Amino acid sequence: MQYLGRRFAAGLRYGASPDAASIAATEIPTPLVAPTTSVAAPAEVDELDNVLKFEPRTQRPRLGYAHMIAAVAAVSGLAFAAVTPGQDVEEIASETQRVAQTAVADVKAPANDEVKIERASLTSEFTEEDKLATVVTASGGDVTKVESGGVLAQPLDTVRLTSRFGFRKNPTGPGFMNHNGLDYGAACGTPVKASAAGTVVQSEFAGHSGNRVQIDHGNGLETSYNHNSALKVSVGQKVKRGEVVALVGTTGNSTGCHVHLEVIVNGKWVNPEAWL
């Protein structure tokens, strides 16, 4: 027997405590019987045991050299490409964005110095004849397709229309008539000018039209100037736009000093206002 010291509330006392050999001598051995049914462990225990045994330990990211560069760059305001820990420096894309900035500074010259500024200029001439040629060319040479106004010039410097194109009352007789041009009122002797460059194909007295000048501008386009008091050009003569070809009169079937302008396209009279 072994005596072990025990402390009680009343004071220190001693009690007998059997050792392991004594207990084994007094116990009656009992045969072990295998259990017929297996006892299932709670699912919580399995899950906990699995977690404890098999869940891998969380790997903390290691701060490598590339991450340190990225961190420093972010603090300093620089922009770098993102690099994973496993990448080498050589794997970074070689092409980087390059931004060019241009600074413009004001330049002040001393007050006592003389500053000369030269400005280069480019001028070109595009005449009305070029415009007419361009329009006719764009129409494929067919003047009937030309619908651009302003390709012809007015025959007088001062424009005062007294009768327009179309049907009107006959000024010299009964009934109505088709007025195939525009009448410009002006004092007799006023210069009449060519509406465009061309070749004179008629310059003579022409019955009710009086003294008449007709100019061929090409591509089926012609103009005529009627009731003139005097003719200033001859057949076959080349004239320029704005050149004087006659003087205002009242010859032929006329009721006063004026010029009767006609625009003829492929042998047919058209409204001159669409061309002026």
TrEMBL record:
Transmembrane helix is among the record's keywords: yes
Keyword Iron-sulfur: no
Domain M23ase beta-sheet core: 178-272
Entry keywords, A to Z: Hydrolase, Membrane, Signal, Transmembrane, Transmembrane helix
Domain of life: Bacteria
Transmembrane segments: 63-83
GO molecular function: hydrolase activity
Cross-referenced InterPro entries: Cell_wall_metabolism_enzyme, Dup_hybrid_motif, M23ase_b-sheet_dom
Gene3D superfamilies: Glucose Permease (Domain IIA)
PANTHER family: L-ALA--D-GLU ENDOPEPTIDASE, PEPTIDASE-RELATED
Protein name, entry field: Murein DD-endopeptidase MepM/ murein hydrolase activator NlpD
Organism, scientific name: Paeniglutamicibacter sulfureus
